[in-house]
Every structure is written in structure tokens, then in C-alpha cells.
Amino acid sequence: MTDYSSDRYTAARYEPEDDGESAPRDSDRSRGVALALAFFGGFFGLHRFYTGKIGTAFAMLVTMGGLGIWWLYDVVLLAAGEFRDIDNRPLRSWESGGAISAPPRRDVAQLAERIESLEHEVGQMAERLDFTERLLSQEKSRRSLPSA
Fold it and tell me: Tens-digit pLDDT profile for the chain (148 aa)?
């Protein structure tokens, strides 16, 4: 017989499983956007559409936010940072893409070096093109001169 009241079952039910990859703990979706959607269109479930909870969004749409009770509950959860997206990750970051981090400094340095090298190559190609155009114009002028 399974004991559904155990802490282990509750923790496994609400925490994402560790599949060996380093999954971000918080949602990528913006808490600010979700809160604005909930405040202005929460009766229609707009914040739930945004977070990927399509089924409950349609239920909110049909019941007009659970006659306002469900809407108020979601607004409080969003304001407190406890509302969760479809992947059961809490919306805690106020910016969009909260789980995205800046590239490491060494990657930026490598990109800067690569850009300098490409600029040098483009400069050399421009010089070669200019030289080729001058040769072609000299050849064209030789052919157009009358022979003496």
C-alpha cells in the first residue's frame, strides 16, 4: 500500500526530477509579464496561457476566473513569487529569460579576437579588389587607345 502522506511523495511530486542535466530551478518566463497579464486579463486566464497552462487557462476563461476567486488567488501567488509554470518551476525573475546568463568573459575575448581577425581579412580583400580594378581599368584604357 502506498503512503501518499509521506514527505518523500510530496517532495517528488513538486520537485522536478534530476535527469543528469543542470535544469534551471526557476522558470524562464517573466514574473512581471505574468503579473501584468493576470492583473489586466486574469479573468480570461491570460497569465495561464503565458505560462503554458492551457487547460486551466480555458477553465478560467469559461468561469471568468472562477468568479474572481481563482483570479485573486493567482494574483497573490504571482505577487509572492510562488506561481509555477507548466514545468512546475516558480516564476521568480521579474525579467524575461531569467535563467539565461551572460557569456563568460573569455568567450567575449575570443569573439573580440575573431572580429579583429575578420576585419583584417576584409581589409586585405578590399586592397586586392582595388588592385584588380586598377589593373582592369589600365587594360581597358590600353585597348581603347589608337595604335600609332
Answer: 444 444 444 444 445 454 545 455 777 777 778 788 878 877 788 878 888 888 888 888 888 877 888 888 888 888 887 787 777 777 776 766 544 455 566 778 888 899 999 999 999 999 999 999 999 998 888 887 776 5
- Please, which residues have CB within 8 angstroms of residue 37's CB and are 6 or more apart in sequence? 46, 47, 50
Q: Which residues contact 97 (CB under 8 A, 6 or more apart)?
A: 28, 30
CA distance 148 to 129: 32
Query: Residue 90: phi, psi to the nearest 5?
Result: -70, 145
Asked if 119 contacts 111 with a C-beta cutoff of 8 angstroms, the reply is no
Place of cell 511523495: 9
